[in-house]
């Protein structure tokens, strides 16, 4: 209740106050800050995935601008020798306005990444986007094989069926590459599992299916229980190090993160940056009031 009230008040709070907690999770506003954070993570033997903030744009001019920024980001990050790849949200390129325009922009970004022998991960957004984003991914995967991956959300009731469909998809010698996360959007119960334990159970079922079907798994979670269970599955299926990695968000559970790195597993951190940090932070908080407790901790227990 208190979390919800706080979350609703957030867009009206001073930007500086919001920045106090956001800065833990966001590298900064510009490419230089993104580079700085990425270099520090690389020094700790952690790879990154770079994300330019922005989503659900309202006109196609913004899509063009976002594409140009991504092209610049790919140039800069590869020129600086950053160990990492890139993530993007299709609604930032007009997915819900004009699917063809969106496809062409993302295609151009992936072509650039492929030219640099790099990789683009398509983030998964709310449930109205799932079918379109899966189709977008399939089309791009056919053309760019090893240079594109997708996110899968364990909380969706449909996910195991989607993975089963994918198991028949021609991989052209490059495994399907999925990041498996719980899912962050607030969805109705007809669409998504709501119970915490149920989501965990489905996460592990999905992960097991991915290992059984030789799909590359980006194990994206800060849930210690899931990390330990994932390690058991890796052991059970003797999954080679080339077929999985752990992924976490910048600023979240750094101790768990370093314990995984110390145990010799590959780790990638999602590094968001950009001018849209304020909208991003407040929207996320309104969508998921549970996050408000993280803010209280960040503000008062630093
Ligand atoms: P859970 O929420 O249970 O968190 C476990 C513990 O981690 C918490 O108890 C807390 O201690 C800590 N924690 C988690 N989040 C925290 C935070 N923000 N601040 C401080 N502590 C925190 N979702 C989606 O729908 N589409 C996507 O494309 C992506 N992409 C993505 C990339 C990466 C690399 C990650 C790690 C996550 C995503 N997500 C996502 C978000 C994901 O779906 C999920 O909402 C969060 O990872 C939280 O779920 P956990 O599995 O970490 O468990």
TrEMBL record:
Q: Which Pfam families match?
A: Pro_dh
For the keyword Oxidoreductase, the answer is: yes
* Proline dehydrogenase domain location: 38-294
Using the UniProt record, name the top-level EC class of this enzyme in a single word.
Answer: oxidoreductase
Q: Where does substrate bind?
A: 89, 283-284
Segments crossing the lipid bilayer: none
Q: Which reaction does it catalyse?
A: L-proline + a quinone = (S)-1-pyrroline-5-carboxylate + a quinol + H(+)
- Residues in coiled coil: 53-80
The molecular function GO annotations come to: nucleotide binding; proline dehydrogenase activity
Q: Which residues bind FAD?
A: 124, 153, 221-222
GO terms under biological process: L-proline catabolic process to L-glutamate
Q: What's the cofactor?
A: FAD
Q: Which UniProt keywords are given for this protein, alphabetically ordered?
A: Coiled coil, FAD, Flavoprotein, Nucleotide-binding, Oxidoreductase, Proline metabolism
**Enzyme Commission (EC) number:** 1.5.5.2
The record's comment on cofactor binding reads:
Binds 1 FAD per subunit.
Protein's pathway = Amino-acid degradation; L-proline degradation into L-glutamate; L-glutamate from L-proline: step 1/2
PANTHER family this protein is in? Answer: PROLINE DEHYDROGENASE 1, MITOCHONDRIAL, PROLINE OXIDASE
User: What protein does this entry describe?
Assistant: proline dehydrogenase
Species of origin reads Sunxiuqinia elliptica
Lineage, opening ranks: Bacteria, Pseudomonadati, Bacteroidota, Bacteroidia, Marinilabiliales
